[in-house]
Design brief:
5 strands; 22% helix; binds zinc ion; HIT family, subunit A; 22% strand; alpha+beta; single chain; binds guanosine-5'-monophosphate; 5-stranded antiparallel sheet; 2 helices
Length: 114
């Protein structure tokens, strides 16, 4: 998608602080971190959100999910704990319309999920 911020980051047209990358996935630090560890994981191929997850291949879906675990390990929060969040649509305040997963950790997180 030409005008999608996360597609531009995936293409390297907008700089980002990369944490992890493979054939299908890019993980980078959130520009406005909500926790000491706040990494955004995206499939490189544009789909809008979880409602379009079926448009990704099995390999892409597995890569995105596996990247959450890899990022947690790389960031040193695997054992202390972390949260994986994907905001989908208006009620969840999805602000970037490219599927992404937030990995949050490095501190005791709020008990409130909603
Ligand atoms: P959402 O609200 O859609 O779940 O999350 C979008 C996230 O993307 C926000 O946490 C926001 O801070 C982050 N974000 C938006 N634009 C950029 C950017 O240009 N670079 C980076 N690294 N993060 C961004
Ligand atoms: Zn996109």
């Amino acid at each position: 998608m030409d005008d999608c911020i996360f597609c531009k980051i995936a293409r390297g047209e907008i700089p980002s602080a990369k944490v992890y990358e493979d054939e299908y996935v890019l993980a980078f630090r959130d520009i406005n971190p909500m926790a000491p560890t706040h990494v955004v994981i995206i499939p490189k191929r544009h789909v809008r959100n979880m409602n379009e997850i079926a448009l990704l291949s099995e390999a892409e879906r597995l890569a995105v999910l596996s990247a959450c675990e890899k990022v947690a390990a790389l960031e040193g929060v695997a054992e202390s704990g972390y949260r994986v969040v994907s905001n989908c649509g208006p009620d969840a305040d999805q602000s970037v319309q490219h599927l992404h997963f937030h990995v949050l950790g490095g501190a005791k997180l709020s008990v409130n999920l909603a």
